[in-house]
Amino acid sequence: MSDREKVIKGLECAIGIRGLKNCDDCPYDNDFNCLGCDIVMWDAVKLLKEQEPVRPKRKLGLYICGACETVVYPDDKFCHECGRELDWHEDH
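RESULT FIELD:
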């Protein structure tokens, strides 16, 4: 199960069907008073942050992706290697 699938399943179990939690099917299952709910929320935040655009960096006269350090060009909207959206705005 991919991290994304695990997080989705964990969130679905945490909110439950018709408002009832379903911890038995949760991939974060544990016996610590649903500590898995906290962990699944942190994992969801991590996945969402991984989707945020990254600022290219300058290195040796080239632009590189801020996530994977692959060479990118000013007309690129996404990194050709990792697929992250590139944020070329100077106003940050």
